[in-house]
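Table S2 (continued). Query chain:
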Amino acid sequence: MGDWTPPEQRFSELPLRLLTALVLIPFALFAVWMGSWWLAAGCGLFCAVMMTEWCRMSAAPNEVLLAGLAAVFGLSLALHIELVSWAIFAAAIGLAVISSQRQTEARLSGGFGVVYVFAMVFGLYTLREGPWDGRLAALYFMSLVWASDAAAYFFGRLIRGPRLLPRESPNKTWSGAISAVIACAFCGYLAAGWQAAELLPWILTGICISVAAQAGDLFESGLKRRFKVKDSGNILPGHGGLLDRVDGLGAVSILATLTFLSVPGLPALLGF
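Corresponding output:
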């Protein structure tokens, strides 16, 4: 979302970021395109990695056990047996809360980490496998999130300007945030034509996706600031951890899934 990096260093991480994207994006697209067990396997892997990052970031115990439960939770989604997934979810929360330090704050942190990580995975899987054209919806929404990230990154660094939230994320700027919203609105305009759908709903959807993605990014930045860490991990060169990379997509997946389930006519209005 843009930053105040010195000009000579402003795009220094770009090669690493592009290399990481060349590996990560095809994997994500393949899993979403195939759906079902392929997507569940990807969700299980991502969930385990993100749970591990959360445990290390927050100093929560039982990292291996929680990562294992996270992997099983992701895989369980393909069974479409809600009781099984809910049982794994409850077991993970119970383990995270009980095994944390006795302070209330530590227990809340452990339980919240499970909710945070599992919800993002559940949101993406349900968006893809919901009672609408999930493949198309997931691919469109993922593309818009990436467009938002790219616009914020490039225009934020080129234009710079006032900081967006100096205390929570001092490197992000209003120029990057506004550029991301405009880019996603334009993508919504294009999507409406491709889907032969009404223009206004798609433009509003594009705007909402950018806002949600940026809110997810800022929220995770706030969490890292709370735990006094720069990145959630170092598995992705140029990005940090997996949580750093999918926070925006996770927020959009949760919001989109809840909205589609609450407003059943919306998917059809968007051509899904």
